[in-house]
Structure formats: structure tokens, C-alpha cells
């Protein structure tokens, strides 16, 4: 009996060992062939204005677009998983929760020992953000920072300035902005608006923000170059090879170039024109469409005209940096959902008709707001940002003791805060990072312009 029991235990032990080895082997060979069998490439990234975010209900971001192009080249669908920070990115990759990190991951010796860098490779450095001024006032050398007030967030920007200050023998007036309600991009905005003179950030973030604020100068570097790249697990040699080949062959491709221009070159602002004819009571060439379709949503046609003014400056052929098209700047997915075929966005009447249909659908989503005038503010905000981010801002308002059914000085405050990590990573937020300043200004600008129209143009 003992011999039989001993034989049974040895047999089970050998089987367990074999299964463990087999499991390890299966895990270790999860490379490109297995990824192709699954039908999807799972990339890990972080929420930010330069990597990944949701805009008007669509996934966007520079890193997202490039990784989508890479996945498409392999015949795969792309799925994005978002981590909270770089250490979590690496942890998730090692655990097999994603196939690749699609983010500007700093290239370090420590990381090289556990990961394989591949695919997209960039050289980054930190720059001073300042307003464009006369040659005599513009800082062109780091020594000119002595005696200047520079506002920076804690972490690498603050650390670099402290080290630079030591290198220069002291004299830089460094202000550490520790408030979680102020982000790096908020500081850039403050420079653009003249509220502070200088801040420091990475050059890619500076380039993106220069497309929103053409009056900033970002040419002065304050750090050494830092290599950054995508990464995969060390055993994923075939995936790494495919990523390297894709990057080498596509860095000058039309799609790659278009994505780079979209985020880092195309201006995000629209130059606006005055009222078409004050004498004849005309706001634009398309007033008859605004008058015709505004009745369907019980809006003053001048409010609808104000929305179109903000969106396209009444240009039916306008195409935004994000791909929104036409007089009412509908995103492709939204246009299709509202019944427009590709190309019909340029038809001004069809654009207005579809926009009104979209507004009607948004209106239903805010039925909990009884006051129609108040509800319009939420509709305008959602038209600009997408429903998800407005719901997030409402949830934050509710959590922090504000009225989630009132826009001004309540929910609008939290749409601003959605660009700050403390808030967009809050458990009540389901849609991540969002550059809320545009939506904040959008609602205010449209309502302000509407008041002007009401005073100058007869109903």
C-alpha cells in the first residue's frame, strides 16, 4: 500500500512539474504569432494631451494614432489599457496585461535590463516656456534665467531647475507649484496669458501647447537630450522586430506625418470674422438654415448661429485638427450616426440639420436638468467635449460639494480640473484626461456672442 501511495505521489509531482514548465513555456512564447492569433494588439499608455485621451466620444492622442497605425499594419485591432504612471506601465507589461508600452518611456540602463525598447523613438528635452517678445527681452541663454521668476511643478522640472541653478551659481527664483489643481499645461496657459513669465516642460508638450497659444516661445532648452521609446517584454523578439521595421519604414509615411502635424503643428484656434451685415440683420450666409432647424430644438436661431461661428467661422469646408468637418464641425462618427454620408458634411444645410439632431439627442441625456436655459449650457459643453467628460465633471462636482446641475461656477470648475491627474484619476471619473479649458471657454464664448447677436440682430 505504501509503495502504491509513494508511486502516486511521485507521478503527481512529475505531472505538476511538467504542467508548471509547460505553463511557463506558454507564457514565455506569447509573441507576435500568438498576438496575431488573438486578433488584437493591446497597448499600455498613460492619459495625457500627447499620448491618449477621449475627445467628442472618440479615442485620440499622438501615441494612440501611431500605435493604431502599427496595429493596422499587422492586420490587428488595437485595444488600449491605461495605467496611472510609468511604474505601473512597466508592471502591467511584465504581468502580461498588455503587449506593448506605447508611450515616451525614458531609455535607462535599469529599464534595458528588463525590457526591450523598440518602435517609436524620440529625443526629448526640457524647455523654457515664455512669451514671444522683442529680441532684447527674449531669453536665449540659460544664464539669463538668473534673477527671473520661474514657476514649475514638483518632480523632474523642479529638480532640473534646482540643478541648473547650482550650475549657474544661484540666482534663479524657483517657485514650486505644489497645488494639485494646477497642472503643467495650466502653467503654460498662465504664461500665454501673461499671468506668469516663465515655466518649464518637455518639448513635446510645449510644441503641442504652442498650437493653442501661438504667442509662446519654446526655443530655449534647459536640459540634456533624453531618449525615449516604446517597449515590449524581452522575450517578445518578433514583436520588437516588427515594431522597429514599421517605425523605420513609416516615419515619413503620409499617415505618420499627418499625425505629427495634427498634434504638434496645426493651429487649434480659429480666426473669426465679424457679423456679415448689421444693416440687413444678417449674421452669416446660412441664417435661413439656422432659423429653419433651430425650431426643432426650441432654440433661438441666433444661439445656433453663435455655435456655428465658434465651430467653423461659418466655413462649410472647415476641417479641424481633430477631423471634425463642415459648418457645424461634426466628428466623422457623429456625422454617420446622425445620418450623414461621407462628404455630406460640407453641405451647409445637411450639416445644420445633423447638428440639430445631435443636439436633440444630447438634450435627452441631460433631462435631469429641469431648467432649459441651464440645460443648454450642458448641451454646449457636451457638443464640444463629448458626454463622457461632462458626466465626469458632474460627478466631481457632486463629490466636492458643488451643484452638479448648474454649469457656471460649479460643473465648469471641474471640467477645468480634468486636465489634472488628481482629478482625472479619481474613481468617479470614467473617461480620463481632458483638456477642459477649451470647453470652459467654449460655453462662455458662445453665450457671450449670443448676447451680442441678440442686441444687434432682430429675432
TrEMBL record:
Record membrane topology: Peripheral membrane protein
UniProt-recorded name of the protein: Membrane-bound lytic murein transglycosylase F
PANTHER family assigned to the protein according to its UniProt record, in alphabetical order: MEMBRANE-BOUND LYTIC MUREIN TRANSGLYCOSYLASE F
PROSITE patterns linked: PROKAR_LIPOPROTEIN, TRANSGLYCOSYLASE
Single Gene Ontology MF annotation: peptidoglycan lytic transglycosylase activity
GO biological process: peptidoglycan metabolic process
Entry-linked Pfam families: SBP_bac_3, SLT
